[in-house]
TrEMBL record:
A single GO cellular-component term on record: membrane protein complex
Organism encoding this protein: Anaerosolibacter carboniphilus
Pfam families per UniProt: ABC_tran
Name of this chain's protein: Putative ABC transport system ATP-binding protein
Family statement: Belongs to the ABC transporter superfamily.
GO molecular function: ATP binding; ATP hydrolysis activity; transmembrane transporter activity
InterPro entries: AAA+_ATPase, ABC_transporter-like_ATP-bd, ABC_transporter-like_CS, MacB-like_ATP-bd, P-loop_NTPase
Domain ABC transporter: 4-225
Keywords from the named record: ATP-binding, Nucleotide-binding, Transport
């Protein structure tokens, strides 16, 4: 089953002389449990696509269907609840809240929904993330790799069906990049999550089930990786 689908998805920014057609009639379908790498030159529309797939922005035209739901037919409020429960986001710049500890940053999505934190899962997550002895540290007391692990923890807290990652290893050295990727793949396999990742790293892309290449706002290639 396709967990993620777009129908003639388009996004235009600005108007007049500054108008940019960032995405042009994009049709893609992504299956449950797939790991998809999105590659392409800078400015080709990768982040725009990821943001639209994840309900962070609104398309100019076209649809995004997530798990059978036409997400842009939802109200702002419904969309934000849907996003929090179904989708995990990981960014290149970790976007952590500086006044919250590592553990508080991770459990924030649940607290915002007044949901109980599953202590067993949280413990397991902190263990996998290698943050067991960093629970009470604040972001500025953590290394870059640790901060990215916290942001991964926050994305995984709800056991989301889909994880979107925008250059998650872009700021990390090769050792930390490898670890972060392994972590993500571990979670994805364990919970049958779908992972869509923008990356410039061809070694990472080669580990994906499928590589989608975007050029000039269009799908230039869409290839399954054979093993
Ligand atoms: P990529 O992630 O592949 O680098 P983006 O999706 O960020 O590409 O950008 C695609 C195009 O849309 C670029 O030409 C960029 O300048 C433009 N763009 C992106 N975001 C905005 C925005 N908020 N306002 C205006 N133009 C934008
Ligand atoms: P890495 O190998 O992940 O890049 P660092 O060399 O940056 O790690 O940091 C080593 C250790 O020092 C980490 O465990 C981190 O928690 C701790 N640390 C880094 N920066 C600070 C800081 N500003 N305050 C407190 N502890 C820190």
């Amino acid at each position: 089953m396709d967990i993620l689908k777009t129908i003639e998805l388009s996004k235009t920014y600005g108007k007049g002389e500054t108008q940019v057609e960032a995405l042009k009639n994009v049709d893609i379908a992504i299956g449950e449990g797939e790991f998809v790498a999105v590659v392409g030159p800078s400015g080709s529309g990768k982040s725009t696509l990821l943001h639209l797939l994840g309900g962070l922005d609104r398309p100019t035209s076209g649809k995004v269907i997530v798990d059978g739901v036409d997400i842009y037919s939802l109200s702002e409020k419904e969309l934000s609840i849907f996003r929090r429960r179904k989708i995990g986001f990981i960014f290149q710049f970790y976007n952590l809240i500086p006044v919250l500890s590592a553990e508080e940053n991770i459990t924030l999505p649940l607290l915002l929904d007044r949901k109980d934190v599953d202590q067993k899962y949280l413990g397991e997550l902190m263990e996998i993330l290698g943050l067991k002895d960093r629970k009470y540290h604040y972001p500025n007391q953590l290394s870059g790799g640790q901060q990215q692990r916290v942001s991964i923890g926050r994305a995984l807290a709800y056991k989301p069906a889909i994880i979107f990652a925008d250059e998650p290893t872009g700021n990390l050295d090769s050792k930390n990049s490898k670890e972060v990727l392994e972590l993500l793949r571990f979670s994805v396999q364990k919970y049958n999550q779908t992972l869509v990742m923008i990356t410039h790293d061809l070694e990472i892309a080669s580990q994906a089930d499928r590589v989608i290449t975007i050029e000039d706002g269009m799908i230039a290639r869409n290839r399954e990786v054979r093993r």
